[in-house]
Amino acid sequence: MDIATIVGIIAAFAFIMVGVQENIGAMLNAPSAIIVIGGTIASSLIMNPLSEVINTVGVYKKSFVNKIPVPTELIERIVGFAETARREGILALEQAVEDGDDPFMAAGVKLAVDGTEPDLIMDILETEVQFIEDRHKLGSQILADMAVAAPAFGMIGTLIGLVIMLKNMSDPAAIGPAMAIALLTTLYGAILANVLLDPISKKLKTYSSKELMTKRMIIEGIMAIQSGDNPRIVETKLAAFLAPKLRPSSDEGEAS
Amino acid sequence: MDIATIVGIIAAFAFIMVGVQENIGAMLNAPSAIIVIGGTIASSLIMNPLSEVINTVGVYKKSFVNKIPVPTELIERIVGFAETARREGILALEQAVEDGDDPFMAAGVKLAVDGTEPDLIMDILETEVQFIEDRHKLGSQILADMAVAAPAFGMIGTLIGLVIMLKNMSDPAAIGPAMAIALLTTLYGAILANVLLDPISKKLKTYSSKELMTKRMIIEGIMAIQSGDNPRIVETKLAAFLAPKLRPSSDEGEAS
Amino acid sequence: MDIATIVGIIAAFAFIMVGVQENIGAMLNAPSAIIVIGGTIASSLIMNPLSEVINTVGVYKKSFVNKIPVPTELIERIVGFAETARREGILALEQAVEDGDDPFMAAGVKLAVDGTEPDLIMDILETEVQFIEDRHKLGSQILADMAVAAPAFGMIGTLIGLVIMLKNMSDPAAIGPAMAIALLTTLYGAILANVLLDPISKKLKTYSSKELMTKRMIIEGIMAIQSGDNPRIVETKLAAFLAPKLRPSSDEGEAS
Amino acid sequence: MDIATIVGIIAAFAFIMVGVQENIGAMLNAPSAIIVIGGTIASSLIMNPLSEVINTVGVYKKSFVNKIPVPTELIERIVGFAETARREGILALEQAVEDGDDPFMAAGVKLAVDGTEPDLIMDILETEVQFIEDRHKLGSQILADMAVAAPAFGMIGTLIGLVIMLKNMSDPAAIGPAMAIALLTTLYGAILANVLLDPISKKLKTYSSKELMTKRMIIEGIMAIQSGDNPRIVETKLAAFLAPKLRPSSDEGEAS
Amino acid sequence: MDIATIVGIIAAFAFIMVGVQENIGAMLNAPSAIIVIGGTIASSLIMNPLSEVINTVGVYKKSFVNKIPVPTELIERIVGFAETARREGILALEQAVEDGDDPFMAAGVKLAVDGTEPDLIMDILETEVQFIEDRHKLGSQILADMAVAAPAFGMIGTLIGLVIMLKNMSDPAAIGPAMAIALLTTLYGAILANVLLDPISKKLKTYSSKELMTKRMIIEGIMAIQSGDNPRIVETKLAAFLAPKLRPSSDEGEAS
């Protein structure tokens, strides 16, 4: 559960409500919402293959539920593997992998147990990581493109509203409310882009870089285990991926 | 047939119609359309050689009819060639190529059958791929440039309309409708850019990267066949181009 | 003569006239034109050395008269040189160069005839090409910078017009026409940038890349001739610069 | 204490007050401030992990109190270490490090005293510097993202205010003041972005590059000390990091 | 004296006056000028260390008085040094350097005379050039940042003016003039950015690249002299830095 994402979205709407106050009715207009939300999704369909747009729903949810991986736990786990491999031989790792383990790590360990050539393991896992990175980038990019489309459809809706209003100016009393509705699409476009699309796109980027780092730690760890490294060395190698203050028990290098 | 492109465009206009409602008449104005569409095309003519602008029409259609190549079928086909070459010798491939095959692949196979040096085949095919990539980039770029020009001509049209209106303000009742017409060019420019030009430019980029990937798979496959690789190895090499879950029958590397 | 540039500019103004209709008088205002055109040129003078700004006039004209070099003719010419060199020795090329030939090619041939070291020829010609590229970039960049300055001066003019108008609002009937004139500078700035500056800057970029390609073909050709390559080889080497369908007589590599 | 930051912010508000004059009351509106400041912070929460947003407060303060490191003093200190190491052996440095010293330098000296391999010291310190750089970049980037969000929330607030006003136009006298309040969020967004967020983000970048330079000087110095370099050589090596006029006593290289 | 800078600025203001005509009084408002100019400088203080902002004044003046170095004169001078060194030995250069010479060149010659190792001379001078380049970049960047801040403070001033005006709409006759004053800050911001800041920032970039080229020519020349190159070779090496038509007497390579 990512508290910051949820708190941020709720807070953004709460702060917006400070401006709206009791005028919530004046802010709601179904056609305006349909133009902006529908238009934004439609433009995403034109830009991307259908499957990617559908995928984006899952990607979007990830920004709420993604638990940021705790690298220290991962290091402990890999060091544990290294100890098992040292004591009981690398084949013993087959039993050591558990259901809760990262599937990527499980696959890597299985490759090592099978006696695959180190270079080939490296190749296979690096290719995997490359595809994960590409998939992450695409998900984040689709949301960023939608964050550009939303204000554009907001403006399209406002222009349509203005044209209709200007054509029918016989009743001056109707001008104000008509223009208010016209402006709602611009408002919706701005909120959609600045609360629900662009920030989520950026959060996904942060998640991606953290997840890729753990994948690279796993690769480094498996290579080290396969080459028979001392568990202590494995730990040192993996700790180098972390900021000093996050490192498990390293006494050296505690410079701030 | 690319369903997403067509559905996206139809949906975008449908959502826009939610705002227009019964005022469709107020939204249509031939001179406004001529200024924006004509001006956008004219600016593209100034920017690009004539032949490229004409080419863009064909490129544009491609975003509707392009069937995304199915890489697994391509792998099967190349592995089939590899098996034939293994069993009956590389010369037997001359008969194996069919009319339905990718002409790029056919040309590559012919080069291999002719006993061309591997380095030269590589060179010839890579040069080809480079030109395909450049042509794709240019097509996508022309549409992106038009997506920038369209709102500019929309604004030019609106300014002209406003100037005319402001010069003739004797009849207050005419001001509203005159301004409505002036705004139509801005509206047309925004729709043109955000529905019909920019998203298509982005979809063409996606297509291009997928097509280039299949071309690179073909090159890799032909080089492997010529060097006499085992069909199983050929398949493994080509599968590495795909995301793990798309790979045909590879049991290893199934990490998520 | 570049038909597309001329047709594009004429068409752009024709489409703009569709909006202007019989109100051409309302669109013309000498002071507005002076502010925008003058200000854009003045800002270019501040940005660039005087000589470069003057140079830009010639560069600008080039986008109308530049005939795109026909690379197949160039290949024929170089292959002809290669044949002469083969048959009659490299010294015979001195007579073969004609007045109509590209001066860059003539200089290169002369270097080869003089028996200059290949590395030095390469160096001299590459340096030349580098300077041509820098000069082209600068010309295109100056127009791109002017395309940014034009709307800025358009806005400056409109703000001045608005301030004057707002200070003198005693005669309501004069407000409309005064504001119309104020808007004209914005209109002029938009037309200047989007019809006459930015698209020409982009066309110059296209020309530049085509011209640089022919220069690189010439270098490649002269190096091949000097090293005594077979004319057939020279042709193959140069044909690799062209898109497959443009290549003169190559039967291989006809992949689409 | 960074005088420029504080003077700049105070001056910016003072110059803004020149426009406000006695109308300070008209400029203050609590709900407007809440929308803009709250919305900006909320969007930062959606974009970033919670810990990073909290961190930003400390980073922000740094732009006021950061004393720019004086590299000449640092050079003197390191040269002093080099002299001690020369005279009394490298172990004597353990006593030489003082509490006031840069903790990064203290850690580096400790590594050297412990007889750590030079390559490993290099590795450990470089990794440290890399993390410092990443952390600085992130802090600066969060403020830059907030500088983009602030005007967006300003616009959202203004649109809300306009919609409310347009819906209730029965009392013409209330329109002016209502619109004034609506505009305040845009004003707050502009001030927040252009006085308090974007410039601080840029100042942090400058600090970062200066701090990283001193860290790199420390690494260079420690490596030189460990390899037993003459103090004079150590000084020359470190002086190369400085602009010529800042170098302590170097007589050569005084070119301007 | 850079004529183009001065002529450009005077011309820009002259063209702006074409729009102002006799309404110069309406265009002048001290508080508006204070907000925009003061705010722009204040934001620069927040962004940069105090010393850099002060430095910028000198940098700014440079765009008026900088005489573009004449590289042919420089080549002649260096070739002269080469001849002296050939005839009378390198020590004779000590007397040859004059007060009018570029101090950078004087320092380099002194290093050569002192018999410094070529690699060290190279290092020292390259470091110098690197610092000059960084300093130039910073100066140009500070002006570019101010060119972004000026319109922002223009908008802040206009918003303040609008809010004050909207709060006090009791006297309709006062609305026009009040709004006129409000718009002046936007006008000032646009002029400041587009006439006095952004173009100067770009001119400084051009100067910088020309100055750095002469510095690199000097380094090349000194290295050549120290290694005892023939003056004719020195000249050829330096001429390669120039566009062909600017080269002093080179007969070869005259291709256009």
Task: Spell out the key features of this protein.
mainly alpha, 10 helices, 79% helix, disordered C terminus
**Number of beta strands of chain A:** 0
Task: Note the gap between the termini of chain A.
Answer: 30 Å
How many helices of chain A? Answer: 10
User: What is the residue-mean pLDDT of chain A, rounded to a whole number?
Assistant: 89
What does it look like?
- The first copy, chain A, has 256 residues and is mainly α.
- Chain A contains ten helices and no strands.
- Chain A has helices at 3-20, 24-27, 30-47, 50-65, 71-88, 93-96, 103-113, 118-167, 172-226, 231-239.
- Chains in contact: A-B, A-D, B-C, C-E, D-E.
Structure in a nutshell:
The first copy, chain A, is mainly alpha-helical.
Question: Topology, pairings included?
Answer:
The structure is a homopentamer of 256-residue chains.
Chain A: H1 3-20, H2 24-27, H3 30-47, H4 50-65, H5 71-88, H6 93-96, H7 103-113, H8 118-167, H9 172-226, H10 231-239
